[in-house]
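Changelog-linked ticket: 6-O-phosphono-beta-D-fructofuranose example.
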Amino acid sequence: MGNNIAIICSGGDVSGMNPALKHFVEYTKANKLTPYFVYDGYEGLIKNHIKEASYQDVAGIINRGGTKIGSARSKRFEDAKYRQIAKNNLDALDIDMLIVLGGDGSFRGLHTFYKEHGVKFCGIPSTIDNDIEGTDYCLGVDTALNIIKTSIDAIRDTASSFSRAFVVETMGRDCGYLALITHITSGSELCLIPEKKYDLKNYEEKFIQEREAGRRYFLAIVSEGIKQNSNEIAQWFEQKIGIESRVSVLGHIQRGGNPSIYDRLMAYKFVAFAIDGLLDGKDESVICYTKKGFEYKSIENVAFKKKTLDEELLKYLE
Ligand code: F6P
């Protein structure tokens, strides 16, 4: 085994990546390894945008969202020809261990790379969607939830003042985790997520009665993955419940911002476990966090299965 190890951010960036980069440099050096940064995701592997990392590179980044080394979704890495170029670039620098901060698609990419070229890797689940099977927690989720919380608290101020219904759309692609946790923790009146069938008719009588009893406003948390458009939900509030409505699509603000304490801490732990795993002969794994603590899981059990939402959490929608 060589002494050179690289880290890559791939796919949607999350807050927590920068604290992870910082600890990567510290922990590799403490273990007498030489740290490298791969810039701009797998594209950086192909373009040979790989540089040795220093303490200076990571000074003053712990409080910054996003990732200092950039991230990307690389189409070219799906092509064997470009993966060969990536391998040649790593060989030239004698790098045979990779850590990737990303989602299941990114892990599948490195799985293919490992099968073809034997480059060892450990994945660190990183996506605000929290949609990776095998882990209860993905880096960036806590910061995203806190940003949503702050936004909803502000929206509540205007909704209650102006007697309106607000349909707040959260990210998550096909996963309703962000919306569901927000619903539970913000006390919203309605939550619509792709994992749970719904019929708006079922809410009509209750909401109309609440209006008659004096309710001034409604908050509806809607995940971007549901079939209906958020504007349709707002129209439903206007037409069926009889309350003026607005839509607020939170969008990419959920992906950025000052990393929360929890994400900083998780970044440190994920990185340390990933490096320990690679040094301990775990050649192809993902470091997952569950009620049992941190565990190394195989790619098959993480990147090739669909995540389902926790039944206990789903009960809050009943
Ligand atoms: O996977 C993270 C995520 O932010 C999703 O929640 C969202 O659907 C998607 O990425 C947005 O992608 P893009 O940044 O390419 O618009």
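Closing comment: Example verified and attached. Residues 12, 127-129, 171-173, 224, 255 surround 6-O-phosphono-beta-D-fructofuranose (CB under 6 Å). The CA atoms of residues 170 and 223 lie 5 Å apart.
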